[in-house]
């Protein structure tokens, strides 16, 4: 069995993220692994052609990233006490950024939440978790929200 030394924990900063972090923290503690916690902010570049100046979009994304980084720092401090963990905010399409980060960092496992959407919600919103699972070359642990 392969050793798991680096875990990428993807969160969306929703209420469900605490549950995902609990699993990531437990696994990291048991295995002595380090964790990189990531949140992927949207690029909003698809709105450039809608008479929205690109500079306004970049400024807005910058504000999102700044706010998300502050939330991320607090989240990591609260949910990864005693674990070697760092938080990072990425910008782009979530599944692409998660997979690219995992590859760049030589991650051994990805842990992420899934909302378990069905029907029209799934068609409209898609599934980041499903795209990551289908395209990952490393193990992916998905955590569904407990109700």
Q: Mind explaining what this structure looks like?
A:
- It is built from five helices and five strands.
- The chain is α/β, with parallel strands linked by helices.
- Strands 3-2-1-4-5 form a five-stranded parallel sheet, sandwiched between helices.
- The radius of gyration is 16 Å and the shape is globular.
- Helix 3 (94-105) packs parallel to helix 5.
- It has a single domain, classed as Rossmann fold, CATH 3.40.50.
- The chain has helices at residues 17-31, 54-79, 94-105, 119-125, 128-135; strands at 6-10, 34-41, 85-91, 109-113, 140-143.
Keywords:
5 helices, 147 residues, Rossmann fold, alpha/beta, 46% helix
Gist of the model:
With about 150 residues, the protein is an alpha/beta fold.
- How many separate domains make up the residues? 1
> What is the helical fraction, as a range of percent?
40-55%
Q: Architecture, according to CATH?
A: 3-Layer(aba) Sandwich
Quote the CATH topology.
Answer: Rossmann fold
Radius of gyration: 16 Å
Strand order of the largest sheet: 3-2-1-4-5
- Based on DSSP secondary structure assignment, what is the total number of beta strands? 5
- Apparent shape: globular
Q: Name the average pLDDT.
A: 84
**How big a fraction of the residues is strand?**
15-25%
Structural class: alpha/beta
H/E order of the elements? EHEHEHEHHE
Largest sheet: 5 strands, parallel
């Amino acid at each position: 069995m392969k050793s798991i030394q680096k875990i990428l924990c993807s969160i969306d900063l929703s209420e469900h993220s605490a549950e995902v972090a609990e699993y990531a923290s437990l696994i990291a503690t048991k295995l002595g692994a380090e964790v990189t916690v990531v949140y992927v902010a949207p690029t909003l570049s698809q709105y450039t052609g809608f008479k929205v100046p690109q500079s306004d979009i970049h400024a807005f994304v910058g504000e999102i990233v700044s706010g998300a980084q502050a939330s991320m720092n607090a989240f990591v401090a609260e949910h990864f006490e005693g674990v070697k963990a760092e938080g990072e905010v990425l910008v782009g399409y979530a599944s692409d950024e998660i997979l690219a980060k995992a590859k760049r960092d030589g991650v051994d496992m990805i842990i992420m939440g899934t909302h378990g959407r069905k029907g029209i919600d799934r068609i409209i919103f898609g599934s980041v978790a499903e795209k990551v699972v289908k395209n990952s070359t490393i193990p992916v642990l998905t955590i569904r929200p407990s109700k």
